[in-house]
Amino acid sequence: MSREGQKLDYAAAGGNGAGGVGIGVLSLDLLGQVLDRLREPRDRKACRLVSRAFERAEATHRRALRVLRREPLPRLLRAFPSLERLDLSACASLDDASLSAAIAAAGAGGLAGLRRVCLARASGVGWRGLEALVAACPRLEAVDLSHCVGAGDREVAALAAAAGLRELRLDKCLAVTDMGLAKVVVGCPRLEKLSVKWCREISDIGIDLLAKKCPELRSLNISYLKVGNGSLRSISTLEKLEELAMVGCSCIDDEGLELLSKGTDSLQSVDVSRCDHVTYQGLASLIDGRKFLQKLHAADCLHEIGQRFVSKLATLKETLTALKLDGLEVSDSLLQAIGEGCNKLVEIGLSKCSGVTDEGISSLVARCSDLRTIDLTCCNLITNNALDSIADNCKMLECLRLESCSLINEKGLERIANCCPNLKEIDLTDCGVNDAALQHLAKCSELRTLKLGLCSSISDKGIAFISSNCGNLVELDLYRCNSITDDGLAALVNGCKKIKLLNLCYCNKITDSGLGHLGSLEELTNLELRCLVRITGIGISSIATGCKSLIELDLKRCYSVDDAGLGALARNAFNLRQLTISYCQVTGLGLCHLLSSLRCLQDIKMVHLSWVSIEGFEIALRAACGRLKKLKMLNGLKTVLSPELLQMLHACGCRIRWVDKPLVYKDC
Asked: Which SUPFAM superfamilies match (predicted)?
């Protein structure tokens, strides 16, 4: 518990060291404001548990709720009548019946204030549940149905009854067609934000109707749709459109961009990444005359850049803040021209651009001193000279990506650390940096993300440097840093207690003792332990009992992890949603116990579990049917598992990925 939480916990219990009154005399409004200022969820929970006054205050004051299991949903909706935001994306097994029952339990008007609902990946919810939700929430403004792969026109039609809807996400709702989109745009004419990414049954016809019926649209994502230039002609009529993403729209070309350029001048952000038929000439047409364009993303689509495009970029000198040109062949003169023409840039993306040199980067940053994000991934010609230029000019730098820039070393990173105190993220994957580099980077006390994958020279000493001063670190990637031992993990947890994402794959010197240290990371959500051959169920037990926030765990090829480790997960890892146990030494009994106990588990990869019999797979999968959304198994199981089970999994919205490898199992 944080220091603030400890003080409030003490006060809530009635103690103040001077015989005064307890916290219960304060008004509910004031107590609610106090709860709002507690950053840690566990602190709010502690106050709620020790003080009924805080409990009452939260009941009337709480505006947002994220539910992990469907069973307590009715009680929670009754307990918090003032909710405005409800997140059910991680609510395992949620279906129409349970959602409708929870809504009914909230009572008449119980959800009247609800404005935003997230149902992403809630594949069990269909049109009946959505109809009940819309009927109970007259003020509904935003709904997220992304990755509900079974959602189709009938589900979308249910949402059309929410006339006040302003934001809708339908990413990867694969069954939505022009008909469903028509229902929404007719029923919800005040839409301001819409994303139909990967809804590949939507055509130019649907987009044309959208443009006619929703004049208030400000943000639109049509990425990976099979729409053509006709859609851009329709979109050009949207006078208030500010953001347009059309990533991977392979049927769009320069003609479409020219049509778009003849319309509204309100565009502030355009993303044409991976549009194979777009050239610099089309982008030049789009840019021409744009007074407000702030972000232009053209990653992995351009093969060359002509002078016309560069000259048009210069017209955005006062507005353009973000430019991504990943995968382009560039030159020093081009980078100099970008620097001269776009000196207000805050973000530049040059990932995998060939031809990026120290001279080019120096000329760019000399004129773009406001840069906060610089992506030089795989720009393998740059050296410490480029880092020196960045350090000298970009004092406000927050994010620097240098993956596979193998010519840099600790000297260049020392300049970055000394001159860029606001650095929050740095990617040094496959750069071969050593402990001395980490000693310099430890000066960056604001560091949140540090990626050191494939840096085999990193040792426990370097981790100790980082731990000594980077207490705000949230993400650490040590993939294949095989010199790291248990002592390094002990040093890490001593100073970096806020870590949420940790990658230790192939760090094969780590044992159960190291995992014992990790057990003290209460905020850890994602842990990758692939191919740690020295760990056993004992170490997994330490993780399961200590890391209560764990959501994703990768144990692939941890050959000594057995039923004991899975049993600890089954008893303690209540929030676990994604698990990989391929090649682990588990039996059918252990697998059945695991899948029947983890009520939040939605995604499991279990390839080559040779100690699990066919019957063991059958029983375990039946125990989890209704909760699983993704499943990865050997292809050989497709013919031996009962068709009834496979049909049941499919009906519950579970997508199975079959791996084409030999099936080996022992009947235990």
From this structure: RNI-like (SSF52047)
Angle made by CA atoms 266, 292, 255, in degrees to the nearest 5: 65
Provide the CATH number for the domain formed by 62-202 in this structure. 3.80.10.10
Confidence of residue 668 (pLDDT cuts 50, 70, 90): very low
Check pLDDT > 60 for residue 213.
yes
Domains 62-202 and 218-310 share a fold: yes
Show me where the domains of the chain are located. 62-202, 218-310
198 vs 500: CA distance, rounded Å: 30
pLDDT tens-digit readout, 146-160: 999 889 999 999 999
DSSP state of 79: H
Distance CA 435, CA 419 (A): 20
φ/ψ (deg, to 5) at 377: -55, 130
Q: What are phi and psi of 448, to 5 degrees?
A: -110, -35
Q: Cα separation of 296 and 319, whole Å?
A: 11
pLDDT > 90 fraction of the chain, expressed in percent and rounded:
80
DSSP state of 380: T
Provide the residue type at 109 as one letter.
G
Query: Which pLDDT score, from 0 to 100, does residue 453 have?
Result: 98
Judge contact between 420 and 397, C-beta under 8 A. Answer: yes
On the CB side of 84, how many CA atoms lie within 13 Å of its CA?
Answer: 5
Determine contact, residues 49/21, Cβ cutoff 8 Å: no
Taking only Cα atoms into account, the Rg of the chain, rounded to an integer number of angstroms, comes to 27
- Work out whether strand 475-477 and strand 142-144 pair parallel, antiparallel, or are unpaired: unpaired
CA gap 331, 355 in Å, rounded: 6
Q: Is 602 exposed, middle or buried (CB count within 10 Å of its CB: 0-12, 13-18, 19+)?
A: buried
C-alpha closest to that of 45 among 15, 72, 74, 5: 5
The 3-class secondary structure across 138-193, one letter per residue, is: CCCCEEECCCCCCCEHHHHHHHCCCCCCCEEECCCCCECEHHHHHHHHHHCCCCCE
Which amino acid makes up residue 138?
P
CA distance linking residue 8 with residue 51, whole number of Å: 10
Q: What is the pLDDT of residues 553-610, one digit of tens each?
A: 999 999 999 999 999 999 999 999 999 999 999 999 999 999 999 989 999 999 999 9
Any residues with CB less than 8 A from the CB of 630 and at least 6 apart, and which? 602, 603, 604, 654, 655, 657
Q: Alpha-carbon distance 531 to 508, whole Å?
A: 7
DSSP 3-state of 603: strand
Domain 218-310 fold is: 3.80.10
**Rounded distance between C-alpha atoms, residue 437 and residue 428, angstroms:** 10
* CB within 8 Å of 94: residues ≥ 6 apart: 70, 73, 88, 119, 122, 124, 125
Cα Dmax for the chain: 78
* pLDDT tens column, 631-652: 999 999 999 999 999 999 988 8
| Side chain identity, residue 179 | M
Helix (H) or strand (E) holding 468: helix 460-469
CA angle, 126 then 128 then 129, to 5°? 70
**Integer Cα distance of 402 and 380 in angstroms:** 9
Question: 116-118 and 552-554 as β-strands: parallel, antiparallel, unpaired?
Answer: unpaired
